[in-house]
Amino acid sequence: MKNKKIFSQINDVIIAIEDINLRIKNKGKLIGKLRSSIDLIKNIKENSPSKDYVFLFHKIKKGHIAPCFLDYSFSDGNNIFRDIAKIERRKENDIVISARGIQYGGVDDFSLRGRAEIEYFIDECNRLNLEYYI
């Protein structure tokens, strides 16, 4: 049921973006960003999310930013919630999984404590039950 509502909202966004795209014909950079957004939204709508964290790590390491879904709970741990977020690399050994100013997870020098960056990243993705789209 939730997925149907999400897909309906995604369709509305696609229609609105395509309408804006038609209205501002050939406005350079803005058009490029709109087309990228449309492609990303269509990709999310048409494809299943992935849990191939090794592939994701290498894409993020190359500078890609990936939208994702993740699970989180509050300190009582009684309820698990799902949120949409993004994964991005800010610098070496600094990958952030966040949404709207809330950091759900990630990798940094302090958290590594001698572990390999990819190993810690995969553990974080598993902990968050992360699913992504690229």
What is the compact description of this entry?
The protein is of the alpha+beta class. Helices cover about 50% and strands about 25% of the residues.
SSE blueprint:
Layout: H1 2-23, H2 29-46, H3 53-61, E1 66-72, E2 81-91, E3 94-99, E4 102-107, H4 109-112, H5 117-127, E5 131-132
Antiparallel strand pairs: 1-2, 1-5, 2-3, 3-4
Helix pairs in contact: 1-2
What is the rounded Rg?
Answer: 17 Å
Query: Could you say which overall geometry the principal axes of the C-alpha atoms support?
Result: globular
Number of strands: 5
Q: DSSP helix count?
A: 5
**Largest β-sheet summary:** 5 strands, antiparallel
What is the element string, with H for helices and E for strands? HHHEEEEHHE
Distance between the termini: 24 Å
The assigned structural class equals alpha+beta
Which strand order do you get reading across the main beta sheet? 4-3-2-1-5
Walk me through this protein's architecture.
By secondary structure, the chain is an alpha+beta fold. The chain has two domains: 2-46; 53-132, no CATH class. It has helices at 2-23, 29-46, 53-61, 109-112, 117-127; strands at 66-72, 81-91, 94-99, 102-107, 131-132. It has a five-stranded antiparallel β-sheet with strand order 4-3-2-1-5. Strand 2 and strand 3 form a beta hairpin. The chain starts with a helix and ends with a strand.
Which features characterize this protein?
134 residues; 2 domains; 5-stranded antiparallel beta sheet; 5 helices; 5 strands
